[in-house]
């Protein structure tokens, strides 16, 4: 299998962190340079018409796209350690937490960065700085929600590490690098403590 990724992009990082947590070997990584518009090349668009990374090319030539779908596929191939839930009930609650983080925290960060950071102008034309600034404020509202969740349990989806923690980690690291967002400095001590614990995981460096 081949995994198409891009340096610093948070969605590919979610998949590589998932792979690292699983201890999966043998997946070739192919780097796509977004700044050079390699994701819009004829060769890559033939694999993913939406011109997005990550994309997982299977041995039979089919290409699986979308971060969560790729992780679901890999979870099926490598069930342990389980990161997406044992049984329908736990799977549902983990998916709820993961979707909330992805749709509200992660997407808000992405929109803010893409519309306010000059380095992302090549990928987002036109940029709308006012929209980006408002998304940054909305992201903080959801970060405060997550801070409250982490005051009640150790991990994003409950008592153990799951795919939801991977999504939240990659989102916050993207915000830390390009928005200079520090939860502790903005009155979110539980989110900061969780972030610091996550930083100690070997997969966090992927």
Automatic annotation (TrEMBL):
Entries under Pfam families matching the protein: GST_C_2 (PF13410), GST_N_2 (PF13409)
Domain (GST C-terminal) ranges: 87-206
CDD domains: GST_N_GTT2_like (cd03051)
UniProt xrefs under InterPro entries: Glutathione-S-Trfase_C-like (IPR010987), Glutathione-S-Trfase_C_sf (IPR036282), Glutathione_S-Trfase (IPR040079), Glutathione_S-Trfase_N (IPR004045), GST_Omega/HSP26 (IPR050983), Gtt2-like_N (IPR034345), Thioredoxin-like_sf (IPR036249)
Domain (GST N-terminal): residue spans on this chain: 1-82
Official protein name in the record: Glutathione S-transferase family protein
The organism's taxonomic lineage, starting at the top: Bacteria, Pseudomonadati, Pseudomonadota, Betaproteobacteria, Burkholderiales
């Amino acid at each position: 299998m081949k995994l198409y990724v891009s340096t610093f992009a948070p969605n590919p990082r979610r998949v590589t962190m998932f792979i690292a947590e699983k201890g999966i070997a043998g997946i070739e990584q192919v780097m796509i340079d977004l700044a050079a518009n390699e994701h819009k090349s004829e060769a890559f668009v033939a694999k993913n018409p939406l011109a997005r990374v990550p994309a997982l090319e299977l041995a039979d030539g089919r290409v699986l796209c979308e971060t969560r779908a790729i992780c679901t596929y890999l979870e099926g191939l490598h069930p342990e350690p389980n990161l997406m839930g044992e049984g329908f009930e736990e799977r549902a609650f983990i998916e709820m937490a993961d979707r909330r983080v992805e749709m509200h925290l992660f997407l808000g960060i992405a929109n803010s960065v893409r519309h306010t950071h000059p380095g992302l102008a090549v990928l987002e034309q036109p940029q709308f700085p006012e929209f980006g600034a408002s998304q940054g404020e909305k992201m903080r509202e959801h970060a405060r929600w997550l801070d409250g969740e982490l005051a009640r349990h150790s991990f994003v989806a409950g008592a153990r590490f799951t795919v939801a923690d991977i999504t939240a980690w990659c989102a916050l690291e993207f915000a830390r690098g390009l928005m200079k967002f520090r939860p502790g400095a903005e009155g979110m001590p539980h989110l900061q403590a969780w972030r610091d614990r996550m930083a100690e995981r070997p997969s966090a460096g992927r």
